[in-house]
Amino acid sequence: MIRRRLGSLWSEAGVVLAGNVFARGLGFLFPLVLARAVTKHDFGTVYFFIGTGFFVSELVLTGFPTALTRFMAAEGTKGAWFSSSIVGGIPLLAVSLAAGEALAALAHEPPALMSMVVVGLSIDAYYFGLLQGLKRFKLLASYRVSANLAQIVLLLGAVALGIDSTGVAIAIYSFVYVVPIAAIELLRRPLRHALRGTVRPDRERVRRLTRFAVPALISGTAYAALTQADLLFVRLLAPGALGDYAAARNLAQPVLLAPYAIAIVMLPTVASADQEDRWRLLSRAMVVTAALGVVLVAAYAAGSQLLVGAVLPGDYAHAASSLPVLAAALAAMGLYSILSQWWMGIGRPGPPALALSFGALVAIGLQVALTPAHGAIGAATAIAAGVGCASLALGAATARARVRARRAEPALATSG
Question: Whole-model pTM?
Answer without folding.
Answer: 0.72
